[in-house]
Specification:
The complex is a heterodimer of chains A (336) and B (326).
Chain A: E1 5-20, E2 25-41, E3 45-49, H1 56-63, E4 71-76, E5 79-80, H2 86-93, E6 96-99, H3 103-106, H4 113-123, H5 129-142, H6 159-171, E7 177-181, H7 189-206, E8 209-214, H8 217-223, E9 226-231, E10 234-240, H9 241-246, H10 251-259, H11 290-294, E11 310-314, E12 317-320, H12 328-335
Parallel strand pairs in A: 3-8, 3-9, 6-7, 7-8
Antiparallel strand pairs in A: 1-2, 1-4, 4-5, 9-10, 10-12, 11-12
Chain B: E1 5-18, E2 21-34, E3 38-42, H1 49-56, E4 65-74, E5 77-78, H2 84-94, E6 95-98, H3 102-105, H4 112-124, H5 128-141, H6 147-151, H7 160-172, E7 178-182, H8 190-207, E8 210-215, H9 218-224, E9 227-232, E10 235-241, H10 242-247, H11 252-260, H12 290-295, E11 308-312, E12 315-318, H13 321-325
Parallel strand pairs in B: 3-8, 3-9, 6-7, 7-8
Antiparallel strand pairs in B: 1-2, 1-4, 4-5, 9-10, 10-12, 11-12
The chains are: A alpha/beta (336), B alpha/beta (326).
């Protein structure tokens, strides 16, 4: 990393208990996030991609402590925030905010736009009434809404405008980093690009860091400096954005990239890799390589009990050391 | 009326009755679906693409939705005039429908087997046992592993991709001439989407059916359609064969739409071209060019609808000189 590290997770795990039977004893756990170690630099965008159910949203929520991690460690600017109580966290909450996928659900329908954006100031007891009014107007301008919007209610706005309101609220306390959880996937194509441009612009202006969670790989590539690919609770590949798209190493990353429909009919049906089956259940994940299990790889048995943590295959390019998912040459390089 | 077209929609008008009066969701939409081909209908939310589909199969929300004008000819038959009994035969029998949300299309309290077999019982008058066997075969055709076991499952037992396969099985059970797929892969992950589109393509080759594929994803259009119809605010603004549309888009809206999507080749963090404004609500549609309305262009023809003309064989476009210049 060139940039100073702002946020760091070490072996972060979030497990949800599965209870069953008459006494509701815990019979298992959904291993939504299963050992993730990542670093996020100042002013950096880290893209996080993966299929639904791979745990990417859970990871995002655990980072801003909307969910409690089961084990592992989250360090923000050198301070361990993993076990701080919500009360202790409150002063730090200014520094990290979240933008949600569905702006219709994340805005209170009974509050007008002004009270929605003003709420963070009130909670943190900042400013006088006049000051707050001024701040709200400034925020609306920053996200490209007119200040006439402030007296209206969320339902009066289109999806894109609502997402702008959500962004204005997230920016209110001048955070240092934001978790953007699928911020554009509920929006129309022509509005998507408006919001993406806004996010990139705001990042430059306020030197923000983003954890950008999405399933659309073209969108992630566009905004991210580095990209992490997540599969069943684990990161399987991590590299600079250009590098991972040009030179993917993990078979899952390759399949994911080849599955993206390209808006060019002449490029029809390039070498698409079709994956069989679905993502295995995170309740009882396979002991060995989860990806090898899905595609019934002949070397699956070898991977049971094997340490498949991320290794650096080339400078700044990390990939899980899994013989089922790597080319023989790459596997030799990593395992030697 | 030619035999080559399975479906011909001509100047279809569909309106909804609301508190604010009649809202015209589909405003004189015309297109054709040739036999054995896939026609993509693309547009943003609220452009009327789903309402067009629901008008074809007579599933408009009642009592609010009404077809107020135009013609829909299916294999030469005027299906707007046919009896509701005949419509029931067509729907599910000769026209299959695949809905976006597989969970909503399946009945949660019945086993998969019963739901698929029901199609055969109703449309083919099969005995219980024959229908069950035919249903198992259908699941197998859709490459659902262990079909006998899956027949006994309830919808919630299955993953999203598997559920969508069951919905496709329902739609294809009677080997229809036309399948209307309304955003069939929008709720699915990219890898599963690739599986489903691939499967749909190969079944189409096998059965020789036509597909009307409704989507907002131009990537999906480029990869699986032969012809494309671009809709904006209740109207068709452009329609052309797929290669022609992507190489030579003529309408300002089509061009803007194509430019605004980031691809894997778009330079990192560059400013994406955007379309100003948002899609107009149904209530405030203008009579003139609706894309001019979105761009805020005041034009002398704002009261008149631009002409829809064939500029090259098979390439139709709504010709408005004002928005195409901006």
């Amino acid at each position: 990393m060139n940039d100073p590290v702002m946020l760091k997770t070490e072996d972060l795990r979030v497990h949800f208990p599965v209870k069953s039977g008459l006494l509701l004893r815990q019979t298992g756990a959904v291993k939504a996030v299963d050992g993730i170690s990542l670093e996020l630099g100042v002013g950096e965008t880290l893209g996080l991609v993966g299929e639904s159910g791979c745990g990417k949203s859970t990871f995002g929520k655990a980072l801003v402590r909307l969910l409690d991690p089961t084990s592992g460690k989250i360090t923000f600017e050198g301070r361990d925030i993993t076990h701080l109580s919500q009360r202790q966290l409150r002063p730090m909450r200014r520094d990290f905010q979240m933008i949600f996928q569905d702006p219709a659900e994340s805005l209170d329908a009974r509050m007008n736009v002004r009270s929605i954006i003003e709420e963070p100031f009130r909670i943190h007891k900042m400013g006088t009434r006049v000051e707050r009014k001024k701040w709200v107007d400034e925020l609306l301008e920053t996200v490209g809404l007119s200040n006439r919007a402030s007296e209206r209610y969320p339902f009066e706005f289109s999806g894109g405008q609502r997402q702008r309101i959500g962004i204005a609220r997230a920016l209110a306390l001048k955070p240092k980093w934001l978790v953007c959880d699928e911020p554009v996937s509920a929006l129309d194509v022509s509005v998507q690009s408006q919001i993406l441009n806004l996010l990139v612009e705001l990042q430059k202006e306020f030197d923000l860091s983003y954890l950008f969670i999405a399933h659309d790989l073209s969108v992630v590539k566009h905004v991210s400096d580095r990209v992490a690919v997540m599969y069943l609770g684990k990161i399987v590949e991590l590299a600079d954005s250009e590098e991972i798209y040009r030179n993917p190493k993990h078979a899952y990353t390759k399949a994911l990239l080849s599955a993206v429909p390209v808006a060019d009919p002449t490029a029809k049906r390039h070498d698409r890799i079709l994956l069989e089956g679905d993502v295995p259940s995170p309740i009882d994940p396979p002991n060995g390589s989860a990806f090898g299990h899905r595609i019934n790889h002949p070397r699956y048995d070898e991977t049971v009990g094997l340490d498949m943590s991320l290794r650096e295959i080339s400078p700044r390019h990390w990939v899980a050391a899994d013989p089922c998912s790597l080319e023989e040459e790459d596997w030799q390089k990593l395992s030697s | 009326m030619s035999v080559e077209n399975v479906l011909e929609v001509d100047r279809l008008i569909t309106s909804f009755e609301t508190e604010r009066g009649l809202l015209r969701a589909v405003d004189q939409v015309s297109f054709k679906i040739p036999k054995g081909k896939t026609v993509g209908i693309v547009g943003e939310s609220g452009c009327g693409k789903s309402v067009t589909a629901m008008s074809i199969v007579g599933l408009l929300p009642q009592p609010w939705g009404k077809v107020l004008g135009g013609d829909i000819r299916f294999k030469g038959e005027d299906i707007l005039q046919c009896s509701s009994k005949r419509m029931t035969q067509i729907r599910g029998g000769e026209i299959g429908v695949i809905f976006q949300e597989p969970m909503a299309a399946l009945n949660p309290v019945h086993r998969i087997g019963r739901q698929v077999a029901e199609v055969f019982r109703i449309h083919k008058n099969m005995s219980k046992k024959d229908a069950w066997d035919a249903a198992t075969e259908m699941l197998d055709l859709l490459r659902i592993p262990a079909p006998e076991k899956r027949m006994m499952d309830y919808p919630h037992h299955l993953s999203g991709g598997m559920r969508q396969r069951v919905v496709i099985a329902l739609a294809l059970a009677c080997r229809p001439d036309l399948v209307i797929a309304d955003e069939p892969t929008t709720a699915l992950d990219v890898t599963v989407q690739a599986q489903i589109l691939d499967l749909l393509g190969s079944l189409q080759d096998e059965m020789g059916m036509s597909v009307m594929l409704i989507t907002h994803d131009l990537g999906v259009i480029a990869e699986s359609c032969d012809e494309v119809v671009v809709m904006y605010a209740g109207r068709v603004v452009e329609s052309a064969p797929v290669n022609e549309l992507f190489e030579n888009p003529l309408h300002a809206y089509t061009r803007a739409l194509l430019r605004s999507i980031p691809t894997l080749e778009t330079p990192h963090k560059s400013v994406l071209p955007t379309i100003p404004g948002t899609v107009a609500g149904l209530g405030d549609h203008s009579h003139g060019c609706r894309f001019c309305q979105r761009l805020g262009i005041e034009s002398p023809v704002s009261r008149e609808r631009p002409p829809f003309e064939e500029v090259q064989p098979g390439h139709w476009v709504e010709i408005c000189n004002y928005c195409s210049e901006s």
